[in-house]
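Revision sheet: C-alpha cells.
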Amino acid sequence: GMLHVSVFSRRLTPIIRYRVGDRARLLNVACGCGRTTPLFELLGRGDDVLRIGYDSVDYAAVQNLIGSVSGLSATLQMEKKRVEGRDQLTLRVEAGAHSFDAKPLELKIAEAFLKDRPSFLEFVKKGSVWPLRVEIHASGSLPLNPRTGKLIRVIDAI
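Predicted:
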C-alpha cells in the first residue's frame, strides 16, 4: 500500500501519518544485519497509480505495454475521470513519427491493454467503468507542468 511515516521524536509538532508518495510492502524476513525493526520493500511511486473500478492501474506497467506497439514514443499520460458515477480511463500517447494513422495505433494499444488486464474488460461488461479511451497525439503535444516542464504523467480528475 501507500507508505506513511510518523515521527514522534518531534515533541512540539510531531509528524503523524505523513504520506511519502511511495508504495511499499512489509517483508516477513529478518534483516541480515541483526536489526529487529520490520523490513519493507519499495514498489515505486504511489502517485503513478490510478484506482479504476476495483483495480489499480500502474503507470510503469502501461508504459511497458505502449513500448510493445511500434510507431509510438514512450511518452504516456493516464487520466481518470468520474463520469455519471463510473470511472473513465483515458490513455494519451505521443506518436513517434511525424505522420501517423491514429486509429490503428489506438486499437493496438487498447487490445494490448485489455489482453494484459482482463479484469478491466470485466468491469466494463458489468457497467462499473467506462470502456478504455485511447488518444494518439503528435510528438511533443501532451501538456507539461508549467513550473517544471515535466510531463504530467497521471491525472486523477475526480
